[in-house]
Amino acid sequence: MKAVTDALGVARSNVAERVRRSRPKRGPQTRDGDLELCAEIRRLVDARPTYGYRRIAALLRRERAAAGLPTVNAKRVYRLMKKLGLLLARHTGRRRAREHDGQVATLRSNVRWCSDGLEFTCWNGEVVRVAFVLDCHDREIIGWTATTAGLSGEMIRDMMVQSVETRFGAPRAPHRVQWLSDNGSIYVAAKTIDIALALNLDPCFTPVESPESNGMAEAFVKTFKRDYVRVNPIPTAAHAIAAIPTWMDDYNDVHPHSRLGYRSPREFIRAMSKPAECPV
Predict the structure, then answer these.
(1) Spatial distance between the Cα atoms of 3 and 154, rounded to a whole number of angstroms
(2) Of 179 and 17, which is predicted with more confidence?
(3) Is 145 strand, coil or helix?
(4) Ranges for the Integrase catalytic domain (predicted)?
(5) Strand, coil or helix: what is 38?
(6) pTM summary value
(7) What does the alpha-carbon distance between residue 210 and residue 204 come to, in Å, rounded to a whole number?
């Protein structure tokens, strides 16, 4: 047998076990602490039912690091969530072929901001419309506005001023920042472009019928509706508008982002702003 296994490049002990049918069968894996970890996972999933195992694992690591406890592996979280039946259903829909191969993300913050709008219907039939702007590097929501009427150019212009003041603490950006949006009338209006230039913002617009060109904003729309609108009570427009500030803060402070190493936008900003340690 040794000559055969050497020629095949396999372990002799493995072949011997298979011949004798004495190879032990592996049962479900269990580890010490699984019961307590299942309780922690259940608590997080109950609070955030739209999160998959990677984001749940990121929240667990964050909590355990703050408490000085050992970290937890994402594969272990996957195993326990699968055992508890808490995994999200796989996406089975067909996607259109990607038509845009440009790069929306930037290598540092305050190089390009992207903006878009969304709307959702409350339980009583009222419609809430939201416009927002986020940074294309750290993904932080810098500014936003909400209304039950139509979004206006004045609201976009106020949001531009708010964003510049929030990021730079000044009435004008110290350097040119791109402002990426679609070709909606609220963005291409002459007054909006004039205000943008006065704020040292550089308006740039996506090609027609190419939402991929503003894919980062489109991705936030999906996240906002999935993780906040659909899982929170919104009986009326007034109730929803009052909740939006909390949702935006939660996204900026808590929501783990895969492109940021499963850190939240502000957690990522704090990590990037720390001075590098000099080697001794």
Answers:
(1) 83
(2) 179
(3) strand
(4) 105-273
(5) helix
(6) 0.82
(7) 14
CATH topology of domain 112-270: Nucleotidyltransferase; domain 5 (3.30.420)
| SS3 call for 76 | helix
pLDDT beyond 80 at 248 = yes
With b for 16 or more beta-carbon neighbours within 10 A and e for fewer, the 217-246 pattern comes to bbebbeebeebbbeeeebebbebbbeebee
Count each helix (H run) and each strand (E run) in the chain, helices first.
Answer: 11, 5
Contact yes or no for 252/223 (Cβ under 8 A)? no
In whole angstroms, what is the distance from residue 112 CA to residue 105 CA? 8
Per-residue DSSP letters for 80-121? HHHHHT-PPPPP----PPP--------SSTTSEEEEEEEEEE
**Residue 40: which pLDDT band, with cuts at 50, 70 and 90?**
very high
Question: Cβ(136)–Cβ(111) under 8 Å?
Answer: yes
Domain ranges across the chain: 1-90, 112-270
Decide if pLDDT at 99 tops 50: no
The two structure tokens encoding residue 50: 């739209």
